[in-house]
Amino acid sequence: MDKFRIKGGRRLEGRVQISGAKNSALPCMAATLLTPETVTLHNLPYVRDIITMRRLLEDLGSTVLMPELRTLKISAAKVEFFEAPYDLVKTMRASVLALGPLLARFGEARVSMPGGCAIGQRPIDLHLSGFEKLGAEVTLEGGDVVARARRLQGREIYFDKVTVTGTENLMMAASLAEGRTSLINAACEPEVIDLAELLNKMGARIEGAGRSTITIEGVKELGGAEHTIIPDRIETGTFVAAAAITGGALDIVNCCPQHITAVIDKLRETGIEIEQPNAFSLSVRAKDKIRPSNVTTLPYPGFPTDMQAQYMALMTLAGGTSTINETIFENRFMHASELLRMGARIRISGHQAVVEGNTRLTGARLLASDLRASASLVLAGLAAEGETVIDRVYHIDRGYEKIEEKLRSVGAEIERFRN
Ligand code: UD1
User: Fold this and answer.
1) In the chain, is it the N or the C terminus that has fewer CB atoms within a 10 Å radius of its CB?
2) 172/130 Cα distance (integer angstroms)
3) Rounded CA gap, 34 and 173, in Å?
4) Which residues contact ligand 1 via a Cβ below 6 A?
5) For the chain, which domains are there?
6) Which of 163, 185, 191 to mutate to test ligand 1, by most ligand atoms within 8 A of the CB atom?
7) How far is CA 295 from CA 239, 265, 320, in A?
8) Ligand 1 mean position to 165 CA, how many Å?
9) Is 255 among the catalytic positions?
10) Does pTM surpass 0.85?
11) For 32-43, how does the pLDDT look when each residue is reduced to its tens digit (9 = 90+)?
């Protein structure tokens, strides 16, 4: 298994290029199942989850070509198998995004029920009740979710809780339903907007993506399209935090600062200087001692849960105590126990973490537990005295493209090794 070895204490300086958003690429790839025509996607990040989604599409019968790096031409003309098997779903929950498109186009879908995962239970009940409201019959057979319908019927669907992939799954399904669907209390994430843009290019009639009510006028069929995936806002935020935690200066390019306003605002409160030279880049300078600032994770446009772990690593260095409230996922503080092993002082109580700050982190052997937790351990390792070794970096490979190469190019001492 791959590991990272980091020698901490290097100040990062230079220019980093942001990759396409994994969380936008995954639903856009799933959306290709909605049409027999070819869909071309550009700016796909080169990360493990994209390879998994490609495998899923190919298992279903899609043809996937890569005419150039980061571009896939996907044709679901020959799909005749409607099942996402357990060995794929267990490595990537986003496999459930195949449900909506398969159900809507073929009237049948079987996806293995995702089990618990490191960051809590993460049920998909809201996806399933949404499909039922559109007229599908949903059953559980041998651990698989099986959904069947003749033609889905547009309805009003209210989400009890804001769910990103739930909104995306229903938006895709409703695109081929008969009549109008309204998704109320829908997720407003930029990735939802990106998917809606792709679907509209394919001939869907979606309005309001990015607001809490989305209306979808169902159409009979969808066609081919070409689309470029938006930049990854969480990777962007992670590099802003990397500059901050190393007292460095990074120019972050090919990003979309507008998508991380909450993160930029929060980090400015901590004393980091962040300029936006243009709509696609950020210039980050860390000069003074980091100030503590409390944060609460919220659905977009709030502070993203996917940046919580990285923010916690930063707060261990702040000049005082800060409080972090995690409201999206239960059990999303696993990185805290690893940070403690580096000398951090963090108390967890339910959904709240109190981080004492003023820590001189020291290198340690660490275990990555999930994607964003691993990013926080890398950041802590960059700031720590001495050597940090992080095991199970396959978690980070799921969502960060060549993070060690990008960090090395701006002065970090980090290497990947295997033993
Ligand atoms: C997506 C992102 C993930 C991010 C999360 C929250 C992708 C591929 N992943 O995950 O990186 O951390 O949004 O921003 O886009 N819930 C239910 N029932 C459901 C669905 C969700 O109770 O049917 C709950 C979840 O347990 C969680 C909350 O709703 O507490 C939000 O989850 P959701 O937005 O669905 O997360 P994902 O879409 O899985």
Assistant:
1) C
2) 12
3) 9
4) 23, 26, 93-94, 122-127, 161, 163-166, 191, 304-306, 328-329
5) 3-19+231-417 (3.65.10.10), 22-228 (3.65.10.10)
6) 163
7) 19, 11, 14
8) 6
9) no
10) yes
11) 999 999 999 999
